[in-house]
Design the sequence.
C-alpha cells in the first residue's frame, strides 16, 4: 500500500482519526491536534515533492521556522503514531522510516496555588444566581477531585453518587471512581436538584454541566469560568490538587490513580514541586534560613 495519492492520504487519515476516537477513546482536543498535525505533514511533502517517510526533514523545517520545541515534539508524536498504525493495520511497507526522537526541552514546573489562596478565592465566589452556583460547583469539583476539563464536561447525572463520589471516564475510556469533598458534594447536589433545570432543554442530554443554550458546556467555557473566578487556568487547579495531596502525606501511587495517569513518571513532577515548596517554607520559617 502506498500513500502517494492525495485522496488516498485523506481516506487513510480519516480511518486513523476514527480509530483514535472509537478505539483509543482520545479526547476531542487531542484528536483535533493529531488530525491537524498529520494533514500539515502531508501538505508539506506534497508541496515539496518529498517522500512520505521523510519526517526528519520536516522536523528540521519546523525548527528553522522557529516553532516551539514542545510544539515540534507534539507533531513528532502525532506523525510517528500515524505511521506506526499504518504499518500495523494497513500493512504499509516503509523500510526507510526513521523513529524520530523528541527534542529535549526544559521541563517547567506547573503553577501551584497555595491552599490558603485557593480556599479564600473559592469562598469569595458569589452564589446568588444559578450561573454563579454552576460556576462555583465547577471549580469546587475541579479542586476536589482533580479532573481534566474534558472529564468534567462529559460528566453525566448518573455519574454523581450519593456516597460522595464521582464516576469519571478518562483517557483511553478508562473509568475511575473519585471521592468528593463535602463542599463539592453539597454544591453539586444543589446544582443538579435546583438549578440545572433552568438551563435544561432538548440539547442537554444527561450532562451535568450545561451552557447558556442548554447544551453540554464546552471546554472553552470552563476555561473562561476558571479565568474569571480564579484568574488562572483549569490545569493549574489540577496541578494544585495533586501537590496539596502529596503535601498532606498522600502516597504517589494514590495520586497517580486519582489523576488517571498510566505512567508514574507523569505524576513524579509533583514530588519536585513539593520539594521546592518545602525548601521555600524552610527558608521563610527557620530562624537561620
Sequence:
Amino acid at each position: 500500500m502506498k500513500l502517494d495519492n492525495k485522496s488516498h492520504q485523506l481516506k487513510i487519515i480519516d480511518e486513523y482519526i476514527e480509530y483514535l476516537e472509537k478505539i483509543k477513546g482520545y479526547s476531542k482536543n487531542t484528536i483535533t491536534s493529531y488530525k491537524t498535525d498529520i494533514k500539515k505533514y502531508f501538505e508539506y511533502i506534497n508541496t515539496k515533492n518529498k517522500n512520505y517517510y521523510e519526517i526528519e526533514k520536516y522536523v528540521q523545517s519546523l525548527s528553522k521556522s522557529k516553532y516551539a520545541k514542545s510544539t515540534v515534539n507534539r507533531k513528532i508524536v502525532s506523525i510517528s503514531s500515524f505511521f506506526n498504525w499504518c504499518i500495523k493495520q494497513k500493512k504499509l511497507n516503509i523500510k526507510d522510516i526513521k523513529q524520530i526522537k523528541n527534542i529535549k526541552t526544559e521541563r517547567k514546573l506547573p503553577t501551584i496555588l497555595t491552599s490558603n489562596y485557593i480556599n479564600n478565592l473559592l469562598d469569595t465566589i458569589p452564589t446568588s444566581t444559578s450561573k454563579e452556583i454552576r460556576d462555583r460547583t465547577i471549580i469546587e469539583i475541579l479542586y476536589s477531585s482533580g479532573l481534566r476539563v474534558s472529564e468534567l464536561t462529559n460528566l453525566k447525572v448518573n455519574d454523581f453518587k450519593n456516597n460522595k463520589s464521582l464516576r469519571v471516564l478518562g483517557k483511553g475510556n478508562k473509568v475511575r471512581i473519585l471521592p468528593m469533598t463535602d463542599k463539592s458534594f453539597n454544591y453539586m447536589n444543589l446544582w443538579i436538584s435546583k438549578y440545572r433545570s433552568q438551563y435544561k432543554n432538548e440539547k442537554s442530554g444527561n450532562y451535568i454541566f450545561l451552557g447558556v443554550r442548554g447544551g453540554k458546556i464546552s471546554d472553552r467555557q470552563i476555561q473562561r469560568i476558571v479565568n474569571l473566578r480564579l484568574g488562572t487556568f483549569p490545569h493549574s487547579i489540577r496541578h494544585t490538587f495533586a501537590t496539596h495531596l502529596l503535601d498532606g502525606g498522600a502516597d504517589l501511587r494514590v495520586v497517580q490513580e486519582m489523576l488517571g495517569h498510566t505512567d508514574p513518571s507523569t505524576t513524579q513532577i509533583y514530588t519536585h514541586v513539593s520539594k521546592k515548596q518545602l525548601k521555600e517554607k524552610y527558608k521563610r520559617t527557620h530562624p537561620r534560613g
Remarks:
- The mean pLDDT is 84.
- Strands lie at 160-161, 165-169, 175-179.
- DSSP finds twelve helices and three strands in the chain.
